[in-house]
Amino acid sequence: MVFSGPLEDRMALRDLLDSYADAVCRHDAAAWAATWADDCQWELPGFGTFSGKVAVVETWTAAMQGFPGLVFQAWPGAMTIDGDRATMRSYTAETYRRDELIHRDLGEYSDQCAKIDGRWCFVSRRFRALHRQEDGA
Question: Per the CB 3.0–4.6 Å rule, which of 23, 59, 117, 126 could disulfide with 31?
């Protein structure tokens, strides 16, 4: 089954994913940081692997300077929960304007999550680009 584990945990993981997406759209570094574990890892092919919440958030904050008006959407494709650990696959759609073009990027994340102090957070996220489209504005 693509979704397995207690419904309460699956809903909490969906809330985690939605909180992440909302923070991206609002460029809210504190809210975005709150979705990550302290010992997290973020892997972005072509850019590197960033380890630890401080490095992850610093990287994201710097990168977001180039994405004003970004609309970031995310939805789960699969979740498997085993106690206080979970794996999740999610898909993303990003729309933003840069260099007089409208960009639409689709991607996939492979996630490891953990429930820490009763709250789910990302331990690792590995991104994979699926499609990029650019249109004149």
Answer: 23
pLDDT for residue 1:
65
Map tokens 């401080």 to a residue. Answer: 54
Name which of 30, 22, 34, 59 is nearest 120 in CA terms. Answer: 34
For the chain, where are the alpha helices, taking DSSP H only?
7-26, 29-33, 53-64
Instruction: Provide the residue ranges of all domains of the chain, joining segments of one domain with +.
Output: 3-136
**CATH for 3-136 (3.10.450.50, 3.40.50.2300, 3.40.50.300, 3.30.1490.190):** 3.10.450.50
Whole-number Cα distances in Å, 49 to 11, 42, 45, 91: 28, 6, 8, 19
From CA 53, how far away is CA 86, in angstroms rounded? 19
Decide the pairing of beta strands 71-82 and 3-4: parallel
Q: Which two tokens stand for residue 115?
A: 């429930």
What are the tens digits of pLDDT across the range 53-105? Answer: 999 999 999 999 999 889 999 999 999 999 999 999 999 999 999 888 899 99
